[in-house]
Amino acid sequence: MEWTSPTTRPTLTPGSVHVWLGQLEPPPEVLRRCAALLSADEQQRAARFYFPRDANRFTVARGTLRTLLGHYLGEAPHSLRFVEGTHGKPALAGSDVSLHFNISHSHQLALVAVAREREVGVDIERLRPEVAGEKIAERFFSTAEVATLRALPTEQQVEGFFNCWARKEAYIKGRGLGLALQLDAFDVSLVPGQPAALLATRGPAQDGRQWQLYDLPAVPGYAAALAVEGAPVLVQNWHWNWFEIGEDRA
Ligand SMILES: CC(C)(COP(=O)(O)OP(=O)(O)OC[C@H]1O[C@@H](n2cnc3c(N)ncnc32)[C@H](O)[C@@H]1OP(=O)(O)O)[C@@H](O)C(=O)NCCC(=O)NCCS
Fold first, then answer.
1. How far is CA 230 from CA 16, 19, 124, in A?
2. Predicted structure pTM score
3. Helix (H) or strand (E) holding 244
4. Which of 89, 92, 166, 245 could potentially form a cystine with 176 if both were Cys, beta carbons 3.0 to 4.6 Å apart?
5. Which pLDDT score, from 0 to 100, does residue 56 have?
6. Cα atoms found within 13 Å of the Cα of residue 238, Cβ hemisphere only
């Protein structure tokens, strides 16, 4: 598994999911192009960040999202409109609402997952050893996950912790429920080297739809995961290029 830069625009079939990885700190002209794509609401949100760096990262994330979705839809990126679900998950408004997406950002990096006719959730987390402690695990992880984490050798604790975190986040983001979905009502795999999996769901976490968790190619210093609704799909992993980001044409 690796991240590939496409030479032509990749085709998204209902049986595949595309995940895009990229930086949020582009050359200045790309930042300007991204800013020009944002809606009035998004510009206001960007203006509310205290640090310019955070405003710029938000602008690039939204500009990149608009560019990628515009390509799939054959529509100009600035013309896309978003609506938010009850718990804040953004979705496309308008004609082609069968295109689903989710975005995650951490530090300088972002991931965008795109799918047709099925919900997706994605998460990327920078590995922060200072966060990966037992108290935080007990607060956010299920009993089974905490036990699995405790049994890991010390040198695997940080990676195991963030495998768990990214997979849980990807699942709650796929479902669109945020923290309205109880984090101890489902178990994910976390042992380094073992595949991403949704191991159990209980009570409110149960869902008539089938969900799959997927690993993504390694991103050094980060953990990342993808959750996809429905039967297994082919996941294709792409790296975005600055030359196309912010272009406002279909
Ligand atoms: C949005 C949320 C679901 C994830 O936030 P996060 O991990 O800090 O941030 P990410 O970068 O991964 O995702 C943010 C993006 O998710 C999208 N998003 C917002 N609400 C969402 C929801 N309910 N479902 C799915 N996606 C959502 C947005 O596009 C947002 O980006 P934007 O603010 O630039 O528009 C957050 O509301 C949340 O509930 N976080 C829980 C954090 C936590 O305590 N986790 C415990 C460890 S498992």
1. 11, 17, 22
2. 0.95
3. none
4. 89
5. 97
6. 21
Question: What residue ranges line ligand 1, CB within 6 angstroms?
Answer: 58, 61, 87-90, 102-105, 121, 123, 140, 165, 168-169, 172-173, 176, 178-179, 183
Distance, in Å, from the CA atom of 119 to the CA atom of 99, rounded to the nearest integer, reads 9
With tokens 């976490």, the residue in question is 205
Instruction: Using the predicted structure, report yes or no on whether residue 96 has a pLDDT greater than 80.
Output: no
Residue for token pair 């992880």:
141
The CATH fold of domain 124-229: Ribosomal Protein L22; Chain A (3.90.470)
Are 140 and 165 contacting, i.e. CB atoms less than 8 angstroms apart? yes
Q: Do 213 and 190 contact (CB within 8 A), yes or no?
A: no
Residue 122 alpha carbon, nearest atom of ligand 1: 12
> Which residues, other chains included, contact 108 with Cβ-Cβ below 8 Å and sequence gap of 6+?
23, 24, 25, 57
Dihedral sign for Cα atoms in the order 217, 223, 226, 227: positive
Task: Please identify which residue in the block is written with the tokens 């799909």.
Answer: 233
